[in-house]
Structures are given as structure tokens and as C-alpha cells.
Write a structure and sequence with these properties.
The chain has 215 residues and is mainly α. The protein has nine helices and no strands.
């Protein structure tokens, strides 16, 4: 599979599946947020003073946790609104909504800003700008960002071609279980692009992707 073939295989799929994965993760994280334990206060003298101090610390911790939970819930809502604009092909609005989330460090927003810049959605195409956002997402651990960054290095899109570096990023995404990355990695092993040609490894990664419905 050539670099351009890898692009044809995966880029269309990612536009619909990437944010769904991140939204599910954000929802799970929000559901797991909760307050700290309630610390009973009793006794007197120095013991009571110590327990009261501990109670204040615990209350501060609970307040911090509540603030984090509220921020996560708001980010979840903001991502949903941005995704709705993207799904409606209102790319200018989607850019405006995803941009502050991306700048705040949300990897999935970084992936979507990168995708829209890469495809010229809502503004002129900017491959160099796109790879900058893919890199941020990849470095934050996003498998979608890792795959897209790897594909750009393989294809030489917005950056000097470096198939070996591209293959390493694709492998990171594949190791995280992203089936599209597993399929691309299989193609790289078939062709020997960025990795030593290895039909056995190609078959292994292709089987992993197929087990998740990606062929």
C-alpha cells in the first residue's frame, strides 16, 4: 500500500469516527467524577482542631473535583455542539467552535481542526497548519492524531516525507487498538514503506483490523 493508498483507506473513515470515540471517553470521565469522602468531625481540643483542618482540606478537594467535573461536562457539551456543526457541513461554525477547545488542549478538537485545515473545509487549505494540530493531538496520546500525523509523514503532506517516522506514529496508533491504523500498518508491512517488508506482520495487523470490522 502506498502513502496515497493509505490516505484513501483511512481519511474518510476518521472524519466520522474520531470524535465519537473522544466524546464517549469524555462522557465516561465525567460520569466517574465525584466528590471526595466525607470526614466526620468529633472529639475536642487538639484532636478536634486537627480533624477540622482535615475537614477543610477535604472540602477544598471536593470543591476542586466539582469544578473539574463541571468543566468536563461543559467540554462534552461544547464538543457535541461543534460536532453537530461539522456533521451539518457548517465548517466555518465548526472551526469557530472547535478552535478554542483545541487551543485548550482537547486532542479530539485538535484532530478536527487539523482535518478541516487539511481538506480546506471552511477556509483555504493549509496542510502545514493541519500537521501542526495533528502533532499536538498525537503527542497528547490521541490515536487518531497519531495516525493522521503518521500518514502525513508517509505522504509528505505539509512536511518533508519521512516514511520511517510516519510508520512509527502509525504503529503507536495501531498499538492503541485503532483499527484504521492497524490496516494502514498492514499495508506498510506489505509494501515495505517505512518498515522492513514482512508479510507475516502484515497479515497479523490486517487480521486485527478485520476483527474490528475494518477491511
Amino acid at each position: 500500500m502506498t502513502g496515497r493508498a493509505s490516505e484513501r483507506t483511512c481519511r474518510p473513515v476518521l472524519t466520522t469516527m474520531a470524535v465519537a470515540l473522544a466524546l464517549a471517553a469524555a462522557s465516561s470521565a465525567t460520569a466517574q467524577m465525584g466528590g471526595g469522602p466525607v470526614v466526620p468531625v468529633g472529639g475536642g481540643g487538639a484532636a478536634q482542631s486537627s480533624e477540622m483542618a482535615a475537614s477543610v482540606r477535604d472540602q477544598n478537594l471536593r470543591d476542586q473535583q466539582a469544578n473539574v467535573a463541571a468543566a468536563e461536562r461543559q467540554r462534552f457539551v461544547d464538543l457535541q455542539v461543534a460536532k453537530s456543526a461539522f456533521d451539518a457541513a457548517d465548517y466555518a461554525k465548526a472551526r469557530a467552535l472547535f478552535r478554542p477547545l483545541a487551543e485548550a488542549g482537547a486532542p479530539i478538537a485538535q484532530v478536527f481542526i487539523g482535518l478541516m485545515m487539511d481538506k480546506g473545509m471552511g477556509a483555504p487549505r493549509d496542510e502545514a497548519g493541519a500537521i501542526g494540530w495533528f502533532r499536538k493531538a498525537a503527542q497528547a496520546g490521541s490515536p487518531q492524531g497519531q495516525l493522521l500525523l503518521g500518514m502525513d509523514y508517509i505522504d509528505g503532506r505539509g512536511v518533508a516525507a519521512d516514511p520511517k517516522l510516519g510508520a512509527r506514529w502509525v504503529r503507536k496508533a495501531a498499538d492503541q487498538g485503532l483499527p484504521q491504523a492497524q490496516l494502514v500498518l498492514a499495508g506498510l508491512y506489505d509494501s515495505g514503506s517505512g518498515v522492513a517488508q514482512d508479510p507475516g506482520a502484515a497479515a497479523k495487523w490486517r487480521a486485527k483490523a478485520a476483527a474490528k470490522g475494518v477491511r
